[in-house]
Design goal:
By secondary structure, the protein is of the alpha+beta class. The protein is built from 6 helices and 20 strands. It has a 5-stranded mixed β-sheet with strand order 9-16-15-11-12, with no helix packed on it. Helix 2 packs across helix 5 and helix 3 crosses helix 4. This is DUF4476 domain-containing protein.
């Protein structure tokens, strides 16, 4: 019998290598060649060492004995004399152990994802999924009925954690289910994992003589909403008694006009130089205002440092910091796990502080 090698090349080049791990079985398979009297398969490590070299009767072969890793594979149909007719090109082969994914949920409430009033400004939110058996090949979807949230990026940090960036700019409001799928495994579905909410409008009226400013409410570390809420800055009131919104309003106005190379509050500045500034911590208020500035920073290290400061210097309580940390706690699913743990520890101390 003479093999039609042209036909072989046509069939093999259209075949994609597949690996299964369901019920403990790992196989590599290719499209059968009708005239073949069997096949020879060779698998080698990246170093060139051959780890499998066998003649078989089927168009698939178990790779159960192979540990996880990256290999190269090639196959050849056998002629009537059980000799390789023609070898395929070496192809990359990655052996992975695919197990059913698990998702760990800290609380029953969904993760709140905001959306902007204006579709011209993108609203991007960070979502962290924690669980077990996550792979680079793990597929993640956030859906409700026929709608789905655009996932701009997916980063598998470890087998226990996946980080997502989700675009909610044009998303419909309401709950979305999370579906996590590993190759050859049943998908894991978590209902109401996230919830997209419309922006809320809040106004604060005050009879006190005050200055009105507009503060911008940020939705995530990457984007800010165009919505602005009017908040009044009270006069004759201690900083520690400000609300969270009032302190944000104060920082909007407390700009160091003559020190343009920094955004540090003017109240906390002593000297301003081209490449550095000298801070003024002559009073506890000054220091606390600076730590609050760090608390709302986009820098994780600054925030963690501020958590510790306010939990340690909690008597008397600095109200705007306490309200900010409580708010962070409610939305902690979007934080890095290490920061989340630090926030919960320091907030517990803050709450239980004897005043």
């Amino acid at each position: 019998m003479k093999l039609n090698t042209k036909r072989f090349f046509l069939f093999f080049c259209l075949v994609s290598v597949s690996i299964g791990a369901q019920d403990g079985t790992k196989l590599i398979a290719w499209k059968p060649i009708p005239e073949a009297s069997g096949y020879q398969i060779q698998i080698k490590e990246k170093s060139g060492k051959i780890v499998i070299d066998k003649k078989i009767d089927t168009a698939y072969h178990s790779i159960e004995e192979l540990p996880s890793g990256v290999y190269l594979v090639r196959t050849a149909p056998l002629n009537l004399f059980k000799k390789p007719a023609v070898w395929s090109a070496w192809k990359d082969l990655e052996v992975i152990i695919s197990e059913p994914p698990k998702v760990v949920i800290e609380e029953e409430k969904p993760i709140i994802l905001p959306k902007s009033e204006s579709k011209s400004e993108k609203t991007i939110s960070n979502v962290t999924i924690e669980g077990e058996h996550f792979l680079e090949a793990t597929k993640v979807d956030l859906t409700k009925k026929e709608d789905s949230l655009p996932i701009l990026s997916k980063e598998v940090k470890s087998p226990e954690r996946i980080d997502l960036k989700v675009d909610t700019t044009e998303a419909k409001s309401g709950p979305y289910d999370l579906t996590v799928t590993n190759p050859y495994q049943k998908p894991k579905v978590v209902t109401n994992f996230v919830q997209v909410e419309e922006p809320k409008h809040n106004t604060t009226d005050s009879k006190q003589e005050s200055q009105t400013v507009a503060i911008q409410n940020t939705t995530t570390k990457e984007t800010a909403l165009s919505k602005k809420t009017k908040v009044t800055i009270p006069k004759g009131k201690s900083f520690r008694d400000y609300t969270y919104e009032e302190m944000l309003a104060f920082l909007e106005t407390d700009v160091a006009v003559n020190c343009k190379n920094t955004k540090v509050p003017a109240l906390t500045l002593s000297e301003c130089h081209k490449t550095y500034v000298i801070l003024n911590f002559s009073s506890e208020d000054n220091h606390s205002v600076f730590e609050f500035y760090k608390l709302i920073s986009e820098n994780e290290s600054d925030r963690v440092s501020a958590y510790h400061y306010f939990s340690t210097n909690c008597a008397p309580r600095f109200r705007p910091a306490f309200e900010r940390m409580e708010l962070q706690s409610k939305n902690r699913s979007n934080l890095d796990p290490d920061e989340r743990q630090s926030l919960l520890q320091e907030l517990t101390k803050f709450r239980n502080c004897s005043r």
